Amino acid sequence: MTSLTALHDATLQTVNFGWETGVVRLTFEVGVASSDLAIVEAEGVTSLKCPRLYPWGPSSSVNAAAVEESVDGKLLTIEMQSGDVLEVRCREVAVNGRYNSQHK
User: Fold this and answer.
1) What three-state secondary structure class fits 70?
2) Beta-bridge partner residues of 11
3) Strands (E), the chain
4) What does the buried/exposed string (b/e) look like for 70-100 if buried means 16 or more CB atoms within 10 Å of the residue's CB?
5) pLDDT for res 86
6) Which residues contact 22 (CB under 8 A, 6 or more apart)?
7) Do residues 27 and 37 touch, judged by C-beta distance below 8 A?
8) Which of 16, 49, 60, 88 is 20 to 30 A from 22, comparing alpha carbons?
């Protein structure tokens, strides 16, 4: 299991699923400035679970994130501080570190 500890306390901004391409892109605010972002991209997506039920109360911050190897590829899990757990089953996961959104 590869831990994505740098995302702890990051703020989830968007979840974008390109159905035709099978790519899920999650954008996180990771710094003090709103332009400090981290992008997690999953390719070859076969399943996306994205509940927003707030069992622990409203929050858009990440508690923990990890990637596990599975029989059919990888499982990316993002546990939110709301108690919701996002799951992405995919072929590959890439994390692009902090960058300033003005330089996209």
Assistant:
1) strand
2) 29, 61
3) 2-3, 11-18, 23-29, 36-43, 47-49, 62-70, 73-80, 85-90, 92-100
4) eeebbbbbbbbbbebebebbbeebebeeeee
5) 98
6) 43, 44, 45, 46, 90
7) yes
8) 60
* Residue keyed to tokens 């997506």: 45
pLDDT digits (tens, 9 = 90+) for 14-43: 999 999 999 999 999 987 766 789 999 999
Contacts of 90 (CB under 8 A, 6+ apart): 22, 24, 42, 43, 44, 45, 46, 73, 74, 76
- Give, rounded to a whole angstrom, the gap between the first and last alpha carbons of the chain: 30
Torsion of CA 43, 49, 55, 60, to 10 degrees: 30
pLDDT of 54-67, one tens digit each?
999 999 999 999 99
Q: How many CB atoms lie within 10 A of CB 41?
A: 19
- Other CB atoms within a 10 A radius of the CB of residue 26 amount to 25
